[in-house]
């Protein structure tokens, strides 16, 4: 059998002497998938917090934008920093570049593994795949920290641990999106998934706080504790997560009204006959209208988002804010405000895209607005702590808005595209293609930052602004199509509802 009822649910039903309801299963799915991916991001965030401990050198850069743009004179404070000795080999002259290579190793393997995980996810029990991914991630995350206990200073050891962690993490996103897609209908998909996608920022925030709090006991604990946590959540997933209504024999909740069933309980795709429900091939999924432009757009969106994910605490701790430098722990805590903004951005982008029935227009608008936000954060973020907090929040909101929208609602839209003729075995593959392509950008951004930041942080921000511009331009054709469809719908009111219901799918055209 492809999927089996979890042992924990079997025990629960045995104790209750009655089957679990549809709504209860939906609640279990939401909570467990939320905790699952939050724990993935908690382990992923750890490296960015520990960077400044592994490589404590001042890295302000020399090639800034014109000096008259700065309202603070940083020269007097640079020599007041108290630096620790760091951890070999990352405390050498090329330590920043080595940390960039560590990020590349993780994200590169993660991106490649994503394509295979999505292909596999449409063919095996997602609960087992997710469990293995989470326990494996926890094991190799903790093993990275074990380098402290065993006094390991071999770069290739840390490189190997990150590569293995990236491989196991690649199973997470296709699995959780496919599971949620099996349980929840299309109504208000952008808003619902925008709220649910807060797990990314919640994971980043919790990972930052845990890693920062553990630094005083040794940086090893900043890896070990999140590793143990994700392994425990993985065991809970194995015991309780139902991957779809058919797994536990639930078709509908008889206590719900017919209107509620139609709106809330209709899965993203109806189950079809076995012959028609074959998993979609990799090349076939790429050919689905809209997959390629959104995947390429996400490449640049994640390049920006993951540069902040991996380097923001480091940047904060090595930049004078109000004339003073923050400690590594304080910088890690402050960086969480970027993710708080990300939560708001994801929900806002989802709500707006639902209201406008225009995913591409919403995503493009956010990416274009990211450009001035990045500029102002770089120039004015050092004025004071208040300015830094406000600008970081706005930047996080604009950076993560389109990222969250594309990886959730857009992926679900494309994974249920009309060209699939009702096939329910494409969602994990499409999700993996889009997020896998984006993850290549997520690998490139931190790597380039590792090299560029040693010369100029202003050059890093220029790179990020250029990436946001390209991300928005890649959606130009889809935006034009959406706007044209809206204008056509207004001219022909009788077809307005049909046009709206087809967006954004209708705006993507047929190949």
What string, H for helix and E for strand, traces the elements in order? HHHHHHHHHHHHHHHHHHHHH
Question: How many DSSP-defined strands?
Answer: 0
Largest sheet: none
Shape: globular
Q: Which stretches of 5+ consecutive residues score pLDDT under 50? A: 58-83, 252-276, 496-511
Distance between the termini: 36 Å
How much of the sequence is in beta strands? Answer: under 5%
Describe the structure.
This protein is mainly α and 511 residues long. The protein contains 21 helices and no strands. Residues 58-83, 252-276 and 496-511 have low confidence and may be disordered.
In short:
The protein has 21 helices and no strands. With 511 residues, it is mostly helical. 55% of the residues are buried.
